[in-house]
Amino acid sequence: MHQRPVLAANWKMNLGPSAATAFVRAFLPLHAARDERTVIFFPPAISFAAVHAATRARPDIRLGVQNVHTDEKGAFTGETSAGMAADAGASYVLVGHSERRHVFGETEAESARKCARVVEHGLIPVLCVGETIEQRERGETESVVLHQLRTGLSALTHEAVREAIIAYEPVWAIGTGRTATPDDAAAVHRVIRAALVRLVGESGATIPILYGGSVTPANAAALLAADQVDGVLVGGASLDAANWAAICAAGIEPGN
Ligand code: 13P
Known about the structure:
This protein has helices spanning about 15-25, 50-55, 80-90, 100, 110-120, 135, 140-155, 160-165, 180-200, 220-225, 240-250; strands spanning about 5-10, 40, 60-65, 90-95, 125-130, 165-170, 210, 230-235. With about 260 residues, the protein is of the alpha/beta class.
């Protein structure tokens, strides 16, 4: 069970092993372990071991990888498998991030196979969904997001879906400085929530749904307070230790 809110840092292709170690050393003193929050780092694969070592004394910090291959092993130069991620100490895997879908051409069918592979190895998939600006302007937000959600989860048992995490990341808000308003986010999160409850029953209400897209220390608290927003998935603002610590403490009253 994940404590909410879930605060997840996706470093994308930033921070090599030395920079990642320096980041963690700067961040940890700024962030006290809190039972009621879950903090997850998604470093680049090559920096994973460095972050794992630097967080060894802090079991409250969880780790994940940004992508895995659909296959177990083999001649796939440059790729990482779910089994290798588990062996390295990962607990989570991002699946279907919009950059995987739109820059690297990952299909919905591949996202489904990756989710299944991730679960096979006892890891938790963080399935990312979200519409492009063109799709939003054509009024297709709901249908795009629901299609990505249903297909992405289609190879999982209901039990595995109940353990998963969903991230709603509108493509037009990623890295653009253009954040969805808390109302915009809540509207789509409610659609996702309803679909999850239809899929797995009442327990679908406890599956964390994260918002991602230009989250900053200035807007994190308002987004986290929005209906059905159970956490945030943060790119750019998670690359600075003080900013990331501020987001991890968003909504906590000073002195608590
Ligand atoms: P930004 O926070 O840089 O907009 O990136 C969001 C994201 O894609 C996280 O996965």
